[in-house]
Amino acid sequence: MKTALCLLFGLALAAPAAAQDEPLRIRPFVLGTVEAFSAVDSFDAVFGRTYEPFFGGGVQIVQGNAFLELTASRFRQTGQRAFISGGQKFRLGIPLTATLTPLEATAGYRHPLSPRVLPYVAAGIGTYHYTEDSTFDEPGENVDSRHLGFVLNGGAEFRVHRWVGVAADVQYTHIPGILGGSGVSRQANENDLGGVSARLKIIVGK
Amino acid sequence: MPRVRARTAAATLVAAAALVLTVRAQAPAVRALQIEDIGLPAVVEDGFVWDVNRSPLMPQALRRIERSQQAGVIGASGRAYSPGRILVRFRDGMSMEERRAAVRLATPSGDIVARREHADFDTATIDLAEDAEAVAGALAARPDVLYAQPAYRVHALAPFVPNDPDFPSQWNLHLINMERAWEIQPLAGSTVTVAVVDTGVAYRAATLTQNIPGFFNAGIRYPPLGIQTIPFAAAPQLVGGAAASRIVAPYDAISRGLNPPLDTDGHGTHVSGTIGQLTNDGIGLAGVAFGVKLMPVKVLGSFWDVVFGSAPFEGGSDDDVAVGIRYAADNGAKVINMSLGSSGPPDCGTNPNRSGCSPVIESAMRYAVGKGVFIVVAGGNEYEEFVPPFGQNPTSVIAEIASRIDGAISVAAVDPNKVRSFFSSTGHYIEIAAPGGSNRGFGREGFVFQQTFDYVFTDTFDPTVVAPSRYTAPRFDMFANIGYIGTSMAAPHVAGVAAMLMQQGITDPAAIEAALEQTALDLGAPGRDDQYGFGLVDARAALRGLGLAR
After folding, report:
1. What 3-state DSSP class applies to B271?
2. What mean pLDDT is reported for chain B?
3. Domain span holding position A186
4. Which of B299, B290, B292, B333 is nearest to B318 (CA)?
5. Which of B544, B548, B550 to mutate to test the interface with A (most CBs of A within 10 A)?
6. pTM of this structure
């Protein structure tokens, strides 16, 4: 998988010769996301819902129609420790706070439909830092874990001003290795901390 | 000096084993006890003094937390704080006037009082009605402020350790991690009713007037004593003081409700003590779910019940057990403890109507579980026993039924070293283990102690306890810390934890069973095995539940 992702990056940054004449543009952005997690039963048991907001920002490096995007975001939510049995979910009233901090790097391609509308697709990898702590924890019982995952997204950027664009896209992430080994995620047989998210970015720059 | 009584638990089970299959087509020929509802208080031996003025069901730690919260204001953050002041740390080098000015910019009512000894921060006073968190936020935003916060309320977070003087010696409660479980749930099951389907419970004071005829026991003829006035008292450590109201819907299934379910053996009272003996009252011993309500349901007769005519025989029978289970389920019990059993064939699961099986009990158990009741059954004490025709280590029929019902659980016993107790039956039906003790290699320290009758005053018919020449009428008002061993003692540990799980939010019996089994400390062969089932119950792990990833 790593080889494939490296190839993807290489291809994305290998801009056409014409594009290579264009200046490299660096565009910062802020990001708001609502992610529907793949681990539906686990999140429902602990938080009472299966989607959560992320907030963050990042930077795009654009040359021609190719771009590289670095994103940092964060989700933090407090729910309750729980138990799942026979499909029933029981919340035990013991506060649990989970934090997920993704650092993602994607490479993509934009195809302008008009000067104001630029659809794009991108793929990449991320490193995902997950922590979990609860009341009554003893030393060593908290979770502090970091794993690699991969990212696919697609959407469109709308130029609303010479210096400002708004991008909306849908992103799929797959994050193995954090869930599924223990906890309610093991009971629910769910091992993916990723999901599908709707993202909105406000981009500053041409 | 606490006393030990190894034989009682085993005797009850053996008696039940011998008699539980008895089928009675007619109503039991039992007599109403002649009872006056007044009696003298219990006599508690060993120098323990009980104080009815205490409120033992409310642990001191919880009261401290409640008082702390009541004295404060709940901020937008959810934390309680003391109104009227802000704790603020300015950058070094600022004069008092500069600091005062900064505070007044945040709120016109603000001022700074003289710094306290040992403090590296200032205390800013503000109007009592002002939002201290908002003012602190405004101050904290200033570049010359390192931090600012309200004076949030705090309370002691030390693990809850009951102040019962004999608690440190209760290896059984330490073994299942009770201190940390009480930390999670200080009220210990206060909304849950646990039915003790057993020999009854010493739950009320009374005076019995009984004719005691002559009888034979152990080959000895005991003379008639005629009409006797027999004192009966409530166990102070079960229902003393404010806890009298914890008794719910007591019922004697043997007499079909004719008599109150008074324990004239001690077994049911001991079992009740493990489930919920009063705790943190500075007296004696602790119990697992000391906040629960108790429902005494009598289905097992004692020696004296037979002498008094209030039970047809010692032990019980399937019909009384089945009725007791259904009664408990119909009257609000959420957990049923059955420290009783009977040996039988091993294949009742595949052939429930064969001779030796107990479909009437299975039907009652399924009925109760269907009504949301979790059932705990002792796994049996016959590992070294040869019980014809079932052989050595026979199947315990009721425990085997429990193993086939999601929402009922069978319990093996372990000793203080977390090793299966030598007597604890093994088989495919064992689902979990709990402290049941052992007198093999441990002596006194291997017993499970709770407050119940001092058997020197009740077992006057037993020549190993009282010389026949000194035979007298029994009295049921003398209590002491008595040690028992048996799977009868293991089961109520699990029942208590189950009650706390109910209180914690797991209300489905099958889910309670799953939670207990999945959080048990695996002992013996990895995974479930025939000696320990899924392992030793862990109260803290069960109550703590699971996170997303751990």
Report:
1. helix
2. 86
3. 2-13+25-204
4. B299
5. B548
6. 0.79
